[in-house]
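Box 3.1 A note on notation
Throughout this textbook, protein chains are presented in two layers. The first layer is the amino acid sequence; the second is a token string describing backbone geometry. Keep the layers aligned when reading.
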Amino acid sequence: MSNRLAAIDIGSNSVRLLTCRRDQTGLVERSKQVNTTRLAKGVDQTGRLAEPNIIQTIAVLKDYATQLAELGIKNCSVFATSAVRDAANSDDFLARVKAETGFNITILSGQQEAAYGFLGVVKGNSRPADKILVIDVGGGSTELIFGDQSGAIEYSDSFDIGAVRMTERFGLTHAMQPAQYKAVESELFKQLQSKNLSHYKGAALCCIAIGGTATSLAAIDLQLPAYDAEAIQRHQMTQTALAELTGRLVAATRAEKLNMAGLAAGRVDIISAGALIINGVMRYFEQPTLYFSDYDNLEGSLQSERIDG
């Protein structure tokens, strides 16, 4: 019997698979795959998952099921986040996935999604930090989690601000006009100001970003020709450098983005919105440095299973 584990994240922009093994040191031999299916397309406007994107997502899940069977992996955590959480036809989607792949999907609440992300980060974080802020920008939502390296969460929340959601809601284009990017910042700040978070402004926080937007920003800054998890895990940017990169992305044409090393084609049309969100969070909380983590909610889901079970 295989001693390997797996987790699948059915996100708003992509579907990801983690396979790994657990030993006394933690999760080892980690391998990740990502496929863009844009399951959140249109959900903010219609409240429903679109059929073409459902079909694409199930096709990816079928492929993952085949791979897991070939590897002999039976222990697989499968969860869905914002797009499925918000959609009126989520029950139908879950039933179809079960019928066609055998996977039982857990729909995470915003709080559960935040907890998974935080657990994953602290599992992989080697930076000394008394207080940590994890910034998880997804396609449909953004989770902010304040806690410490022990894994204890002080405060967490999920905001309906994501790279796909903001791109669609405000009709964001390439080479944006000021009114477009200011609309994203305004929505972000409005939602942050609705919470009692002002005491975190200027606090000594180790800010760590996870998710596809974050790892893409790190990869662009590093000009990586191919994804390198270890390089991402070690990377950091000053807020000034992050603001400069955000400005470059906001001003870039589609062709210019396609030529950027480190930026996957499936994220070209939403990277500007995602960068605006992360940069906006850093500005709002007056933080000077952003770190990046390849460890995220996939690793967190397996850590959560161990704690809970």
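The longest strand covers residues 26-36. The two ends are 20 Å apart (CA to CA).
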